[in-house]
Each structure stands twice: as C-alpha cells, then as structure tokens.
Prior knowledge:
The structure is a homodimer. Chain A is of the alpha+beta class. Chain A is built from 15 helices and 30 strands. Chain A has four domains: 13-129, Galactose-binding domain-like (Jelly Rolls), CATH 2.60.120; 149-246, Jelly Rolls; 254-572, Glycosyltransferase, CATH 1.50.10; 582-655, Sandwich (Maltose phosphorylase, domain 3), CATH 2.60.420.10. In chain A, the strands form seven sheets. In chain A, strands 12, 13, 14, 15, 16, 17, 18 and 19 form an eight-stranded antiparallel β-sheet that branches. Chain A has a six-stranded antiparallel β-sheet with strand order 6-5-8-3-10-11, with no helix packed on it. Chain A has a five-stranded antiparallel β-sheet with strand order 20-25-26-27-30. At the A-B interface, helix 1, strand 2, strand 5 and strand 8 of A face helix 1, strand 2, strand 5 and strand 8 of B.
Amino acid sequence: MNKGSVWIWYPGDFEIYHHLLLNIRREERNYQWPAFWRLDDCYHNVRFRKQVHCDTPEEMTVYAHGVGHVWVDGKKQALRKPIILSTGIHNIEICVARTDGLPCVYVDGVQSASNSSWEANEYSFEWLPAGCNELYPNKEDDPNIFSFQYAEMLPVSIEKRQEGLLYDYGKETFAALLFENIQAPKDIRIFYGESLEEALDTEHSILIDAVPAGSDKYRCSSRAFRYVFVKGAEIEQFELTALYEYLPLYKKGSFTCSNDEVNRIWDMAEYTLHLNSREFFLDGIKRDRWVWSGDAYQSYFINNYLYFDTDITKRTIIALRGKDPIAKHINTILDYSFYWIMSIHDYYQATKDLDFVSFIYPRMKSMMDYCISLTDEDGFIRGREGDWVFIDWAEIDKTGAVCAEQILFAESLKATWICGDLIGAGETCYLERYNQLKEQIAKFYWDEDKGAYIDSFESGKRNITRHANIFALLWDYADPKQRESIIMNVLSNDAVPKISTPYFKFYELEAMCKIGRLEDVTKQIQDYWGGMLQLGATTFWEEYNPAVTGLDRYEMYGDRYGKSLCHAWGASPIYLLGRYYLGVNQTAAGYDAFIVEPQLGGLEWIKGTVPVNGGTVSVELTQEALEVLADKPGGMVRVNGREYPLQKDIPLRLNMKSSTT
Amino acid sequence: MNKGSVWIWYPGDFEIYHHLLLNIRREERNYQWPAFWRLDDCYHNVRFRKQVHCDTPEEMTVYAHGVGHVWVDGKKQALRKPIILSTGIHNIEICVARTDGLPCVYVDGVQSASNSSWEANEYSFEWLPAGCNELYPNKEDDPNIFSFQYAEMLPVSIEKRQEGLLYDYGKETFAALLFENIQAPKDIRIFYGESLEEALDTEHSILIDAVPAGSDKYRCSSRAFRYVFVKGAEIEQFELTALYEYLPLYKKGSFTCSNDEVNRIWDMAEYTLHLNSREFFLDGIKRDRWVWSGDAYQSYFINNYLYFDTDITKRTIIALRGKDPIAKHINTILDYSFYWIMSIHDYYQATKDLDFVSFIYPRMKSMMDYCISLTDEDGFIRGREGDWVFIDWAEIDKTGAVCAEQILFAESLKATWICGDLIGAGETCYLERYNQLKEQIAKFYWDEDKGAYIDSFESGKRNITRHANIFALLWDYADPKQRESIIMNVLSNDAVPKISTPYFKFYELEAMCKIGRLEDVTKQIQDYWGGMLQLGATTFWEEYNPAVTGLDRYEMYGDRYGKSLCHAWGASPIYLLGRYYLGVNQTAAGYDAFIVEPQLGGLEWIKGTVPVNGGTVSVELTQEALEVLADKPGGMVRVNGREYPLQKDIPLRLNMKSSTT
C-alpha cells in the first residue's frame, strides 16, 4: 500500500537541520567546539498539501515526526489513524510542528502517497515542491537521524602496552566503538589516533572518551581513527566492537594505468573521498568535520568523476547556504561565498537539473545581491573587518581589493546570470556587472611589465603570486598573448613562490593540464601523493611537505596532532585523471554532449570509466590504440585535433599511430 | 560568590523560543493544532563576551545549557570547571551551541558574573547586550523551562455521577492534574470544561486526556478548566491533585467604588487578565492560548493600570515579531502588524525604556518597511490574497484599501519615526509618509455628506461603520467639527450597527470616555460585564450576547464549546476605570509627568491606585472631595479645568463643591 511513499519535509530543511547537528559535533579533548558561523535551523511549523484524485476509494494514514493534524476536504482529522478517501477529488492538507527537530510527514496511501508531488509551505505565501530523498522510504524511518550504514570492523592487531591496549584497525576509518559486557574496576579511558603517535600520546590526543566505571555497555560517538589506545582495563574486561559508519556510494568512475603507484594513489583518493562523503562533503573526518564551501567545491568535481552522486552535492550546496538573512560570508570567507555561487552553475552543467536550479535560485540571487551590496565604487569587493579573505595559505598581498577575489566574483556574476536565465528569471544587471568587472580586473590588475596579474593594487607592492594567474588561465581571463606570458612569468617561474597546499594544487594542476603539461602533472602526483603513500598513509592528508619529518608532520594550527590525515581535497587525482587523462568532460549541460580526449600524460597505458550523468564512458588508451565505449549518446572523441563521433554502445577503436597522421 | 549572576542568552531569543513552544501547544480533542503562521526559533549557536577587570583574583565557573567552551585570554577552557582569573584584565568569550533549545550561559563569578554587562553575538557582525531577566538567578535554573509557580488547589465539590466523578474547582483556573497511587482497572478518561456542560458533554469537550490503564502516576499538561469530569475510575482508585500554574504578578493597581457590581467586575477582570498573563499575554487560556498582536495590544494598556509589569509586555512584543525575513503580517493580520509597531511607542511612553527601543528598533523598522513595500500608488496598504484584513468581526466593507487600516498604518509610521528619533536613528521618510497618508485618508475616506469616515472607497458603497470613526476620534484624525459630526452621525446613531465584540468595545468605550460620556460607559460596563457576572461567570468571556441563551452561549467558530470563557480582552474595565475614572495618565514618557483627572462617571465614590512607572498614585473621589497622593514627582491634578500641582508624598485634598466654582 505504501508504494511510492517517502518521508517529506520543507524543501532544504533536511539539509539545514543535519548541517546544524553536524556543526556542533566537533570535539577537542574535553570540550566541544561549535562552528564559528551562524547556524540555521529547519522551520519548525510546516504544512503539506495535495489535491488527491482517487479513481477508487483508498485508505490513507498520515505518520509524522511532530504534532499536528490533517485537513481532509476542510475537516480536521488525527494523525496516525486510517482515513478513508472516497472515489473523487480530495483536498488534503497536513499541518505538522516539531520544536526540537525536523517536522516531517509520511503518507501511507496510493494516490495520496507522500513524495515530491506534494507541496510544502512554512506559512509564507509560497508553496514549493516538498523535499524528500531516497534515504527514507519506510514509515518506520526518521529523517531526524541521518541514514548511515554500519559494518563491524576487526582490528588488524591488538597489542598489550604498559598502561593499556593498543588497537590498530589497519587503516584510517570512521567508526563507533561499542564496549559490551564491561567488568572494569575503574573508568576505561579511550584515546584515538589517526597516527600511532597520537593514540599513544594521551596528553595530546585530540579525540578522547571514557567509559564510566560500573557501566555494562557503552557506545562512543562515531569518530575518525586508525589506532585506539584503551587505558584502564584488561582485554578480558570488555568486548569491543568497532562499527564502521558510512554512506553507501556506488563507484562509477575507475582508473588504472601502467604505473602501480598512480593506481594506488587513485584507490586511496577514492577511500579518502568516501570517508569524507557523509551527510555532506566534509573537509576532514577527524577535525573539524565541518562543511567548507571551498573544500566542498573541489569535492563536487571529484565526485563527478567517481560517484556522480548528485544528492550529496545538492545536500552540501543547500546546507552551506543556510537561510536568510545572510549574516556573513559562507564559512565567514569571502571566496567561499563565490565558490558556493559558482557551484550551482557547475552542478547544472553536470546534471541539467533545472528543478534544483529553480529551487536554489532565490538563495543564489540573495547571496549574489549580498556580495554586490558590499562593492566599492570600482565595482570590486573587499573583505571587511571580520571577513576572512582566504584564497590560500600563501603570501598573497591581501591589501584592499584582491585580484583573485574579483575573478571569483566575476565568475559568480556570470553563474548567477546564467542560472537565472535558465529558469526564465535572468537579470541582465548581473551580466552587465560581469562584463564591467572583467574590464576592471584587466585594467587594475594586469601588469604589462610583469606580464602577470598582481595580487592587489592598493598597497603599491604589485606583488605576484600564482593564485590569480591560475584563475585567469582556468577561466579565460587572459588572451593568448597574456596566457603565454603568465605561463612563462608565473607558472614556470621558480621565483614565484610555489603552491604549498593540496587545496590550491587542485587549481594549479588543473591549469597545467589545461596548458598541456600532463607529464609534469603525472610527476607531481607521484611526488606529492606518492610521498604520502611512502610514509604509510592510508588516506591523503590535509597538507604534506616532504621536508618535514617525524612528529612535526602531524602538527598544524599550533596543535601537535592538529593536521587532518584524511582530507577530502587530497582526493583531487581522481578528478585530474578522469578529466584530463581519460579526458571526459561535458560540452553541453548534463552531458547531453561530451568530449572524450584521452592523453597518456607520460604513462604507458591508462584505462578507466567516467560517469556521464546517467551513463558511463569507458576509455582504454595505449601508445598504440584507443578504445572508447559509451552507453549514452552525445559523445565525441577528439584525438590529435581530429574528432570522431561516438555512437551509443558501439566501441570506437582508433589506431593511435595512424590517427596522428 | 554568584552575586549578580543571572542566566544570559542571545537577546530576544528566550522570548522567541518560548513563543515557539507555546504556539504548538494548542489541543483540540484528539489532535494538536499548531499555529497557522511561521514560527521562528532561537539561534542555536551563540557566543558571549566580556572584558573582565579583576581587582583581586577570582574563580569563575561557566555553566551552560548546551555544548561549547570558554576562551580566556585566547586559550580554550572547558565548561563547568573552575577557572582562576588573576588580578588584571581578562578577555573572556564563551561559545555555546544547543540544537534542541535555547543555548544559555551562567557565569558564577564576581566581576565575571553573567548579566547584561556581557555581550552576545550569533556570528553576525553585531554584538548586543546579552538577554536576561529576573526569572533565572540560580545556576541550577534552566531558561528552557518557563519559570511558572505552582500551588495546590482543592475542588469545592466532588460529585459522583453515573459514569464518573465530577470535580468543581469553584472558578476558572489553569492547572495540571496529577493522578497518584492509581489502581484503576482501565483507562481513566478526563474531560475538562470551562463550563459544567462542556465537562459532561464528553463527546464534545475540547480538552481531553487519558491516564493509561496500569499507570501508577500520571501528570496531565496544564490546562484551562473549572470542571473536570473523570470517567472510568472510582474515587478510591487514585489521588488527584490540581496544581495551579501561574506567573506571580504584583498587583499595583486597584479600584473600588460605591457600586458593588463594578467592584466585582474589576476583581474578575483582574483574575481574567492574570490567568492570561503567562509567558506572554495570551488571548484566552483554553483555546487557542496563542499570542495575538491585537489582543495583546489591549493587554499592554490594561497591564499598565494593574501590574505595570514591563517584562511581560517586552516579552510579548519580542515574541510576536519573531525574526527576519518577514513571511507574513503578524498573526497573518494586517492590522496586527500595525498594533505591534504602535505598541513599541506606547511601551516607551509608559516606561521611557530606551534600552528596549534601541534593541527592538531594527525589528520595528524592518516591519515598517515590509508594510511600506506593500503600498499602492495612493500610499495605501491593502490586504493581499492570504492576508487577513480583520479590524473586527463586523460588516465592514473591506474592498480594497480599508480606512481603519490606513489610520493604523499612519499611526505606525508616526510611532516608527518617533522611536527612531529617540535613539538617534530617525528617518524623516516615515514622518513624511505619515503626513502624506493623513492627507490621503482625509481626501479618500472623509465623506462630507455623511459626516463620517467611510469604510473603503473602491466598491463605491461608501459604507459607514463605527470602527474607522472610533479610531479617528481616538487618534485625532478629525477636526473639532468633524468630531462633533462623528459623534452625532456615528457614535450616537443607532442606525450604524453596534460594536458587538468586547475586543472593539475597548476602543469604543475609550472613545466615549474621551468625549466625556463616562456615565454611558458605566452603564455599559454594568450591562455587558455585569451580564456575564449574573450568568455565574468567574472570568470574562471572549464574547457575550445577552440575547443568546442556554448552550448556545458557549458556541463559537462552529464549535459547541468553541468560545473561550476566560479571555484577556474581557479585562478592559481595569484600563477604563484606571485611565478615565481614577483619571491617571502619563503626559511625559515614563510618567515623568502625569495627569490625575478623576471623574465619577455616575458613581457615588471611587477609590483606587494606579502605577506610574516606579511609583503609585492613589485617588479617592466622592461628590464632595478629592484626595490624591503620589509617591513620585511630576503629577498634576486637573479638576473642572483647573490644574493643581501634586507634590511627591504630599496628599492633595480638594473640596469638589468649591473647586467647581
């Protein structure tokens, strides 16, 4: 009877509510550390409506997490009691309120089944399609609890140490420890470690817990670790189970090649991203476990070459934005507001999902208008006191209006214009401002003598870093002559400080791919990611500097174990290898048209699959031959400047030796 | 050590959170009925800061309802653990988050004691003085639970009926029933009644409950009733205690006179208002127990002549407004947005409380701007589809722009201008718009032929009701000639339909007082309120029509017991008797200057006290003599057109016979 029913809620509120919960979960030794930005909540009083057409009588029962009632054709009825709908048309409205969580509804019925055919309203004038997803299809479900799955994990070793027991689970993981049949005479103290050192350095381990003496059973919160050091009990005094907590995601992208280290890097990148793909795309799973717009922006791209899970991208975009009125930039960071705006257009490009654009556009527009309200007479945006002008951890001259921010601002204006236009709400003011801003950027920041974009102009320093110049290459802010100049004077210029974070390395390596330097990229992947592999990493780190050794490797933010050893942005090789080596990318929204332009990048052979929005392209390239197969129309293979249309389900085989002529 | 500490929270959020809780508590038989407007919530992630100057070292402990930590001079510390502050200056910041309630903080310390000297922030750019009140002075308190008091109540009778037991508590009350030592073989079903009929008519009683079979103890939610009918158990099978739930309020106003019925009316009005004075001023305690801006507006005035409790007025004003962005008019009612705006100026007039005006002004301004955004080319505001243009339950022609709404709009513009001006943020656009609107009102609505304001002009009906004309008299929208005309053609004209609701009777009787018709008012009080008394009412009703008899008296909104028998607006005699009979009113904000102009209104003698913002005026008037005593300077007695300055603490005695000459 409940075919087609799912739990429904006010659209976006599931995401906002779980973002609220997630943002206050950060722990550090003996206190909690709520995020330092405004946290929004779901609406607590909502209603749902549908005009239900019954060809035959049906029984409808309304379940809810919350209190309320059901109006059926103007008469109030109780929740959780069967209601008979006679043949004909019925106007149903369900009112539900809940003060301590997400009010939501499940209608067990046929025509009345709850799903996105219902509308939702928070008592404003506007009714919107109800929010729902595939995670909550049963009436027993509760969307207030995120639908993770759990699997029992065994340690690879248990070692008795002087003061306790050391468990090694063999690799980084995220799990809840469950202590059962406890018979310990005193508190059992638990010290987690992403590294062995952290677990054993009990004065400084970031994540700790304790089982109170006298407990029979104790379940710890789910946390990130590879090692667990348990003090205060013998192994016979409890049974310990580790429950791996994860979101099932289906791997659609794959990559193998002639270089085994690169293969291992790809696999570890996949595992790293998977651990960070939860309610939303996290930055890292140990600390801070928050959602950062700039970090998430990269995860969206990586996801498109791995899971192509559109739900997690949408969830993340909705959560990051929160609700009106806007208090500060997203994550307090100027650039992160822009990545958020840009991500909507990028998401559309990958999915052609107009429903989502329609839903999010009002929030996109108000975010854009907020940024515009902060511009100066030159049309530039600046950080106010209390704004974080981030771009990267680098010696950028951030005085006044910063070039990299203006490029992101311009890209955001363009994205807003396009997305508005897509749903028939396009406002030319955004387009005009985009064009003006591009001109202003060229005028104020391009330094003809230096042949590069300067960081900022107000200080008079005319400092050059790679960042704005990389953006200029990526998003075509440089004409061919300027491009050459940037490549020569910045990208290939060792006097310009190197990019030191994997975060910005994403953009730098992409720029290098764009200008055809794949062999350099292959080398960097091997050096940087391979370097972490060689140190025994089981997931990629927040930051890695080969020059740093010993315990110092784990230090960050002034904390001995402050560094995250499982950081989403470490997974960027997946994107680079899929996008530029397998060479697959959409050329029309939703991959209605897509290009396949594989390159070996110095490898002997590469092989893999790339999801293309409902389809998959498989690519196998050697120095001799290329084979491409797509289960979706619209593909075009490009090799050495020549294009070959790709037919659905028909492999295209090219002799690489002959195709070069 | 905790001298001076109180619980603190983000300002306004205590009110908004308790308003959220209150708005979903409405019950009706077997379902809940959440309010039909958007409900806002407190911020869930907040921080507090103070620069603490310690002359001597002190120990500080931070308690919180929520998770978080304390920064002391840039170092993080845990909550609930003593922190030593050395002699000197310390920068303290406390971060607290709570997802399912109000995050709040209590600092046990000396210089560090938590109170409004701390600032609060929700991670926007603005820091505000922390919110607090006198209800939560102990570290064991929890501001998430409203601080009611409880007193055991005994029934005046317990009667065994055929199917159960009937408890009569002698008068309307609001209490929690507590069943203890239950030994009943089946469910105990409970039926509440404000009237005997409702309690016994178990199919239709609005409030019901049930003690599940097998319970040993059961505490019902607090509810309104006089009678309780208990079915399914014998008296020996349980012990029943009724716990009266109330907010202690100190009665500062009083009134007695030569007419005992009027005295009883005053007392019953006081009890009626007290029952409705809870977290906020409610409309009625049975159904719907919500906060309605128009109802509350009258309670503010009554309160000023009874408790002069400024906290409950502030709480109500804050709760009604909620947060930005504005979704609809307050309570969905156009006029109720205006009463809300006007109430702030009225509150200031009574209290001279600039701190509150400063706090609320941004919300006042955005409410005003919301209304202005809805105006038409004539400068008038209209109800949109989905807006409720209420004014009163009366046959008002509500086509298009309604006169009474425009008068309220104009008064709101004036109030916004004045309040902004008071805090140095006055915007002349409000003043200009006020002046223009007044002219437009005269031009569009004054009908020279009819000598009155018409309801509206668009329909061409040129209909006349009392409502707009009463507003015009109250707020001086009529010149002396027009006044006379309104009095003759509307107020004294029986062809114009009578005011039928006690809600609007408030304004009508006030207008009659203003034009000197106190004897008519006395008669109406005796007829209308006395009529309810004679029917055995123990609190005043939502509505009373002497022509309706029997069970029909309780009917309203199509529900047999739909009418509220304890409705705040029934308490208006307190205001009328204090304001126009005892004759006390402020003539400068905060009663820095006040007038005492007593009138007998046809009574032989009157006697009473009126609170005057930190002081009290007592008045005793007979036909022969007047005695006035104030414990506060600034008073001026006016009798028969002559004025007599009133000295603090010195009784002024006048011979009324001689003073008339």
